[in-house]
Amino acid sequence: MWSRTTGLLRAQRIPAIAQTARQASAQKSFSTTIAAFGLFKDYVTHLKSTSVEEITPAELNAKLTHDPVTGPLPSFHLLDVRETYEWNEEHIPCAVYTGRGCLERDIEGIIPDVQDEIVVYCAGGHRSVLAADSLQKLGYKNVKSLQGGLGQWKNQGMSVQQNN
């Protein structure tokens, strides 16, 4: 609606149109979300089969408990790429936090040697596959993703560090 006093166009809410727009948006959002998740899972599956190697929770646990006194080798790194709030609840002992959103920017400061062994994990094993692929594209040579993520780690009885 045009305002003669200000000379500006003012938005006017028309309830029937607003309701129709909300319904269309909700339907589109829902269908797009389902389709996008399917594409996402397909892409992750493709990466697992072509470029990203996975490590099982048992294999990772063996690396972490390699030497009960010193822990894993200095050239071994366990990266948690979940969201900050997830890290703040719990994480795998010996893990280093770097959110998925900052990984490419921050990784050289965390792990300067591209030859070091890196295992990346998230909650369910999807984000970590994407992160591992990204690290490989940056030139890191020995990168794996934790199969099933923290969920599978815990389901197999492995320990987590709780943050209070």
TrEMBL record:
Pfam families: Rhodanese. GO terms for cellular component: mitochondrion. One of its GO terms (molecular function) is thiosulfate-cyanide sulfurtransferase activity. Transmembrane segments: none annotated. Residues 72-162 form the Rhodanese domain. PROSITE patterns: RHODANESE_3 (PS50206). SMART domains: RHOD. It comes from the Eukaryota. InterPro entries: Rhodanese-like_dom, Rhodanese-like_dom_sf. This is Rhodanese domain-containing protein. It comes from Synchytrium endobioticum.
